[in-house]
């Protein structure tokens, strides 16, 4: 088959493999094989009788299958409609466009993604189908290819925002999509966190403390920060959601961290009084006392900021701020004092 009739991976220029096509469509290779076996939605030609060779018509048929199943059409009906659209089957007396309307469920359909990386579209398609294996595979591939920071900012966040917008515009429907995607994003971030040896941890300026303020349950952004710090071999202690003020103060006293990151998604949970209290915590011998640098994360801190506290707008900016204080033991950088 000539190059002009064989679909290619746009990033490599080589013919698409089954795995590459699965990533492009946002499904798992197992799903493609299942569709081929059950419904005949597969390659028209197989090289050497075994290897799948995908033609443009095969790809168009699979894209139609994905659109239909994402819209809630049962797979068997979606397969027949996709074949009719591709000209593989004669039309059954109805317009092919009518097929998606038959048997439509409450599935979310297309997410409002806009101009994003191709990986976002594949991840969104997998999420709206509640295809956990495909979601897991796509997230792991993004972390492997781009690293934590880019995978978070350019793949995970746009898809999460699209799911959130779809949920907000549809009342309380489709919340299951957001829950499934959030769970797998959290899992991918933890799996992408390398283990820091005790020796490296002890030789650094000390671990940063990462915590959500009391009443705050949104942890994914600081989970991403925790994973990105570990990727840079910088130590941190993750305390997770809704940390009580007393527990946070006790942790800061016990650890003596160079920096404390406080995450607040909503203005109702952000407390500048708590941030100032943490920033004023001191430890060490008299005459050489130290204080933590307080970093405010999240949209909840919008508005006037406390003096001497940082509010980095992105994960990359937060990493730059924390890298300074975590890699320089002692001195002004570790004390939280800023000119």
Largest sheet: number of strands, sense, barrel closure: 4 strands, parallel
Listing every helix as H and every strand as E from the N terminus to the C terminus, the arrangement reads HHEEHHHHHHEHEHEHEHH
Count of individual beta strands: 6
Spatial strand order of the main sheet:
4-3-5-6
Number of helices: 13
Q: What proportion strand?
A: 5-15%
User: What's the pLDDT, averaged over the residues?
Assistant: 75
Calculate Rg over CA atoms: 25 Å
Oligomer: single chain
User: What's the shape?
Assistant: elongated
Low-confidence stretches: 1-6, 9-14, 91-109, 330-339
SS content category? alpha/beta
Helix coverage percent: 40-55%
Amino- and carboxy-terminal Cα gap:
67 Å
Structure description:
Helix 6 packs across helix 9. It is built from 13 helices and six strands. The strands form two sheets. Strands 4-3-5-6 form a four-stranded parallel sheet, sandwiched between helices.
Summarize, please.
The protein contains 13 helices and 6 strands. It is an alpha/beta fold and 339 residues long. The protein has a 4-stranded parallel β-sheet, with helices on both faces. It has a two-stranded antiparallel ribbon with strand order 1-2.
Topology of helices and strands:
Elements (H helix, E strand, L loop, with lengths): L17 H8 L3 H11 L5 E3 L3 E3 L2 H15 L4 H12 L31 H11 L3 H38 L5 H17 L6 H6 L4 E5 L7 H12 L4 E3 L6 H11 L3 E5 L8 H8 L13 E5 L17 H13 L3 H5 L4
Helix pairs in contact: 1-5, 3-4, 5-6, 6-7, 6-9, 7-9, 9-12
């Amino acid at each position: 088959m000539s190059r002009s009739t064989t679909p290619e991976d746009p990033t490599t220029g080589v013919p698409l493999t089954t795995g590459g096509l699965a990533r492009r469509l946002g499904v798992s290779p197992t799903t493609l094989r299942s569709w081929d076996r059950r419904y005949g939605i597969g390659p028209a030609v197989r090289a050497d009788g075994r290897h799948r060779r995908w033609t443009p018509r095969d790809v168009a048929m699979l894209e139609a299958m994905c659109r239909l199943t994402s819209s809630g059409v049962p797979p068997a009906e979606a397969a027949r409609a996709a074949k009719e659209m591709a000209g593989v089957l004669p039309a059954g007396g109805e317009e092919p466009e009518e097929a998606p309307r038959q048997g439509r469920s409450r599935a979310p359909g297309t997410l409002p993604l806009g101009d994003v990386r191709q990986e976002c579209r594949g991840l969104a398609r997998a999420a709206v189908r509640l295809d956990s294996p495909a979601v897991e595979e796509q997230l792991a591939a993004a972390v492997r290819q781009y690293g934590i920071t880019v995978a978070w900012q350019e793949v995970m966040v746009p898809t999460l925002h699209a799911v959130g917008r779809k949920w907000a515009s549809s009342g309380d429907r489709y919340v299951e999509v957001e829950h499934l995607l959030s769970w797998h994003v959290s899992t991918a971030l933890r799996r992408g966190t390398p283990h820091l040896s005790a020796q490296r941890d002890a030789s650094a300026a000390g671990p940063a403390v990462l915590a959500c303020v009391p009443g705050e349950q949104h942890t994914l952004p600081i989970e991403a920060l925790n994973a990105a710090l570990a990727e840079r071999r910088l130590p941190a202690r993750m305390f997770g959601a809704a940390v009580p003020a007393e527990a946070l103060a006790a942790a800061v006293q016990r650890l003596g961290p160079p920096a404390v990151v406080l995450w607040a998604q909503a203005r109702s949970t952000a407390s500048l009084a708590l941030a100032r209290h943490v920033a004023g915590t001191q430890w060490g011998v008299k005459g050489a006392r130290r204080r933590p640098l307080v970093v405010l994360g999240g949209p909840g801190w919008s508005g006037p900021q406390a003096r001497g506290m940082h509010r980095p707008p992105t994960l990359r900016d937060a990493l730059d701020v924390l890298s300074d204080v975590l890699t320089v033991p002692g001195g002004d950088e570790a004390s939280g004092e800023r000119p």
